[in-house]
Amino acid sequence: MNTWKLLLSILIVLEMVSCILFAMTVNDLQKDESRNRFNIKVFNNHRDKTSSGKYRPKNPDDNLDDNDDRSHNVNYDFEDSRYRNDRAIHAPGSAEEASTKIGQQTITSDMPNGKQKSHAIARQKMSKLRNVTIADGVCGSLDIRNNIRSFEVLRNCRIIEGFLNIILIANITESQARNLSFPKLREITEYLLIYRVDNFTTLRYLFPNLEVIRGDTLFTDYSLMIYEMNQLTEIGMVKLMKISRGGVRIERNPVLCYTDTIDWKSIVLAGALFFATNQHPSKCPACPSSCPDSHCWSEDLCQKSMESICHPLCLGGCFGPTEKDCYVCKTIRHEDMCMEKCPPHLYAFRERRCITALECIKMKPAHLRKDDKAKNWRIFNNSCVTECPVGYDEIIDQNNVTVCKTCVGDACQKFENGGVVRHISDFQPFRGMSVIDGSLEFQIGNSYPTIESELIDAFGAIEEITGYLKVARSSPLTSLEFLKKLRVIRGRKLDMNNASLVILDNSNLSNLFHESQKIELENGRLFIHDNPKLCMSKITKLANMVGITNYTVLEIHPDSNGDKVACDIVNINITVQNKGTTYANLVWDVYEPSEGQNLINYMLSYTETDNPNVTFESNPCSSRKWQIVDVEIPLNNSPNIVISKLITDLKPYTSYGVYVKTLAVRNRSSFRSPTGQSKVILFRTDPDIPTVPANVETIMTTETEILIQWDEPTQPNGPIAYYIISGFIRIEDEDFLSSRDYCKHGIVNEVEKIESPKISFKAIIDDPKSCCKKEVVKYKKFEILCYDNMTTGYIPQGRYNYCDAPRDDKFNIEENFTFEKNFIYNTKPNISNNTYYSFIFNVSGEERSYVLKNLRYYSLYTIAVTACGSTLNNGTELCSLPQYVNAKTERRPDADNVYNVQADVTNDTLVTIKWDPVQHPNGLTVAYIIEYTNTIIKSATKTSACISQGISRKKRNTYDIPNLSPGKYSTRVRSLSLAGEGNWSQEVYFTIGMKDDNTFVATIIVTITCIVAIIIIGFFLLRSYRNKKKQERLIASVNPDYIESKYVRDSWEVSRDNIKLSEELGLGNFGMVYRGVLNGNIPVAIKTIPVNYTEEDKNEFLNEASVMKNFSSFHLVKLLGVISEGDPPYVIMELMENGDLKSYLRRIRDVEPGLDVSRIIRMAGEIADGMAYLESKKFVHRDLAARNCMVSNDLVCKIGDFGMARDIYETDYYKIGQKGLLPIRWMAPENLSDGVFTSDSDVWSFGVVLYEILTMGELPYQGFSNDEVLNHVLRKGTVTIPRNCPEIILKLMERCFRWRPNERPTFIEIVSELESFLGQDFCEKSFYHSEEGIELRNSGLKKVYHNAAQIRFHWGNDSARWVREFEDNVTLLDQTRAGTSRSKIFKNGFQHLGNIAAMEEIPLDSS
């Protein structure tokens, strides 16, 4: 027993200890949780404090939750627009608070000064910004403010599902602003607000790829708002293509330009535009001349138009034609593909991405309004939604999951508090609501293109209003039918004059509720005033329906309503008596005025429409406008006559609506006077001749087929029944062509594409204060074809006839189209050997292309496309003028082959070559080329002769070769046709003067072979001897000269008479450089050599210039010509007004202490693009420096002509001997150690050029001697990168200075890194964006070539030389001519430096 008691006591003690320990643990946890809550509470309370000194209620959305799918606020001052709307609805007096206003939107002021310290502490505790992405690249709503560090939350955002606020950031420099860039961001689903952010001059770097703002939720009525940006000079968001919903408001930006040069109509699909208090356009620079229709984002960024290559599911731009190539999708994006709906097992979230059912259910609850209870996400009809639609109620099922269930009656009612509706953004809380608990006011001031559908969608389900309904000063409203389910207004709270229904001062309201709708007023009266288009009869009908018949003039005044429309209609019968293509004659009965009424005249109104339900009074934002014609009262006032009016200047085959009404006045004693008015009747004018087919073009598909394409006429003037495709071959004039010596002058492509002139009409710019979105006149291709005896004259806009030709309105058109009709109808098919020489085909009016087959190869055809409409009753066909186009078929490869070549040896010195003439050439044969060579002598030059077709015909296709030396020969022949040179014939062999005994020839061959063998052996022995010498460090000339090579004239030769010299520009490598003029109007730079030059100097001068003949790229200085005949010789180059880059930088550094980031990147990109071109051609520059880069008049940097700057900057080179120069400060380690020059070493030099740009032309390694530079570089040293270096340039320089050459980027990769920061003109002119550059990028090669062009060092007794060892695919840029033999050596050698102590050697592959 005692034992049990003891055990029980022990258990009791243990239990008490356990309870104490558990209580202490719980207490500690509660303290930690309380401490964490306190930190967040201090932060939020500080944030929520308003200017009135009170804290706003805490919003559950403000919790920092990684699973929050709706928003992540970095700082919390700025309220979501949907929450702000509650203040407009619930607290109209909140506008009196001390706050900053943006239109109708309220922005709370910044935090009080007294709380700065506590905010800093809280900010330190939350200094590590968290990842805000919801899914891969998807972020929630973001509010960025106060601190530049807040931008980091955007780093990984590709899409923002919500809004983006960037506001109230003061402590930011211009350099920091330019370095902020978020190229991943392409889409914002709600709105973008930028407000009071200092030192942002442009947004081009911040959002370089933002394409779409959807506007699912608006900031008042806007999706894009830029407000009070004091330093912003341009918007620059060049990739912005679409704003799907909502308008654009740009206001109070004092230096902002280019708001009026952007084609906002192509971007904003449904929304108003408001621009005010920005920089005046007259003070802004103009758009670049290259911009289409003068639409641009800045002075160097043109606005890109939407291309038609994108898939229909793309919204904005794309990089290919399929649904996988869209940057942004119109609807759902799943697995990197755009699609109409999600796969069966997934559900659409926010109608833009797919998630699983479990992900939807576990989604964090969303708040539609700030004070509302959070809404759980649920599955409904393959979508993840927060609200059940009308007819469904939400319930909790057995799995504790919210679902939507069908409901009826009162069970389906959904309640919403009342409020004031002023903007589109105020509509959201009322969607799907059936009962308004309170009063509902409409005060909509701004119009919106889709406001009617928006109103029905938001308020169409409302059945009951417990307070009053007020519609006041809402000019966009034309009807109250959007409240289509409203049945009762209870009037528990009344408005002015005890009214529960107030309709006041609505300038366009013409209808009330639907005729079949029954509304009950439980309490209150009516108050209806100042609605000029609302007829009294409709008001009376409403009053009778609600049971108020004893209204007073204080409640409803007859004179303040309906005073601007026709009320109390008396019908007038109107008909169309006759009509034509451009006119209609209308007749109607005479109107008998009522007693006390005086008739003034009739007003005949007509408009283009095919809507049978067209109304008299159009929507104020509709594009339809009624044209009004005043018709006088006839003198004969007999009741038996009718009144007629002829309407002219109508469009052919166009549907019109027309009605007539009276204009009358009443006597003072008459209370109301009726208005005579007809119903709207529709009629269509007769069809007429269409204009020519538009955009006719041809594509040569094969040698016998041409694809012809066209568009429908810009003015079809009726249905197009068919098209006529006719044409004929244009036979070459053989007699005319034979007059040209093609052997001397060569082939010229004589076919030019004929293009129709383009006439553009400037788009009409809307008044920003207008409530309507105007129709924009599109830019169309426009053709005018007139005969010689016609003159163009004034024709009203919209008419099709642009030529003043005599024309009978009864369609006697045969006389006017004689030539065209003869061409069309008299062209008969001519077929020979299954080949069309002329043709005519009819094509269905629905077709837009046709393939012409069985044509003759390489032949020019004139083709006409004619559009034909309906055939009139008299048999006349309404066919347009033909649209002509010339097209030539492709050449046939073997059509110019020469067959049956023979060689007849007449004697020991004369040979006659014979061949058969080409039977069916490409076009015409114009010459023959005969080539022959001695086959015994391996290095014998091939000799060719050219004879014209005329001479060949006279000699019956023979050619005599006289005075041949003895030997064995081969010969071949090919023809020269209008398509170019044909294939060579088979070789034919013949022998001249050789006997069967060839002992003499054999002896010569053996002798020559022995001599060559001795020379080779001697060379290797000499090489072995030299290798035994002590090796010393040698330094090579970067621009070595070659041994003498005779310059040969070519097509680059320019006549000396075409050149005029002016002032001197400077001293070049060979002599003076002058400014000059070529052909009288082309400014050029002209290089010369001194007067006392030698023949060797002349060849060297011209051969170095010949290097440029092999290159053609925009970012290389262009060679324009050479003058080798006469004294002195000239080399004509493209004129670079600003000289070399080094001089330019030093010239401007006294004015500009430094270049901005955009100019630095621009210079770097242009130089890299020029070097990328050289890299693609497998050329190595070996002397890339700022002195060898030239600057044009418009500040474009180009790679200069090579060697020109050596004498100007001789101090930049390490001088060796008398002539050898070496740019040590720009050379890579492998250049100095091993003599290896590749494009990788050029990249090192490019990094040094970037240093020169950043330092405004300072000498690299400032303060180092040349020997110190050698030691520094070979010990892994580089130039010191300046502190002010932009981040992108810093990273690029670090990569350029990699020790291992294969780790450095290629120039094409360098351009790729800089490309997104470069302008539109760079895309149009650069090698990077050329077809060759795109092909190089798509090839996927890391390097353009594989092996280096290595140079070994050898030296003898007095001098040193370089011997180049080339790989097959590598050539050094210093090569003077493309045909220079690879075995040549450099003329100028190197002077060795004596016995210098060996420097520390560091292998290039060391880490």
UniProtKB/TrEMBL annotation:
Domain Fibronectin type-III: 570-688, 897-997
Residues reported to bind ATP: 1087
Entry keyword annotation includes Heme: no
InterPro entries attached to this UniProt entry: FN3_dom (IPR003961), FN3_sf (IPR036116), Furin-like_Cys-rich_dom (IPR006211), Furin_repeat (IPR006212), Growth_fac_rcpt_cys_sf (IPR009030), Ig-like_fold (IPR013783), Kinase-like_dom_sf (IPR011009), Prot_kinase_dom (IPR000719)
Biological processes annotated in GO: cell surface receptor protein tyrosine kinase signaling pathway
Cellular-component GO terms for this entry: plasma membrane; receptor complex
SMART domains per the UniProt record, alphabetical: FN3, FU, TyrKc
Residue ranges of domain Protein kinase in the record: 1059-1318
Main localization, broad class: membrane
Catalysed reactions, as listed in the record: L-tyrosyl-[protein] + ATP = O-phospho-L-tyrosyl-[protein] + ADP + H(+)
Source superkingdom: Eukaryota
GO terms for MF: ATP binding; metal ion binding; transmembrane receptor protein tyrosine kinase activity
Keywords, sorted A to Z: ATP-binding, Cleavage on pair of basic residues, Glycoprotein, Kinase, Manganese, Membrane, Metal-binding, Nucleotide-binding, Phosphoprotein, Receptor, Repeat, Signal, Transferase, Transmembrane, Transmembrane helix, Tyrosine-protein kinase
Recorded topology in the membrane: Single-pass type I membrane protein
Annotated protein name in UniProt: receptor protein-tyrosine kinase
Organism: Microctonus hyperodae (Parasitoid wasp)
